[in-house]
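pinging the channel bc i need a second pair of eyes. not urgent but kinda urgent?? the chain im working w is below, pasted from the shared doc
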Amino acid sequence: MRRISKESYNWAAGSYVDLFIVSAVTQVLFVIGLYWTFLGDTDWVGGPLKVGSNVPILAIGTLPVLGWGMALAIGIGFDKFPLDYKAAPFDPSLISTIAALNIGGQILIIAGILTS
């Protein structure tokens, strides 16, 4: 069996699974926020809308865009960029930092939704 060296441009291909796991976790947070906003508050269904009531809807819109959509796009980009352009792969610490920031941001958005 041939050993792959770190100097090779494709040694880290497929190592960005962490971002796809982050995507799955943030999808769960999105569903919790969606449930809390639409099913937890019955004023959305038949009652009069409150002034400034579009804030939860904007927060719900940011969850998929900045959460699982971003994690999927970054994961695909990190995986394909070194292969397409024969560049050095990204350091795994960068990937874990991005994953931690993404999860942290999602938790803050969900906390804002649940406390409003």
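so The CA atoms of residues 3 and 11 lie 10 Å apart. and The chain has one domain: 17-43+51-115. — does that match what u expected or am i reading it wrong
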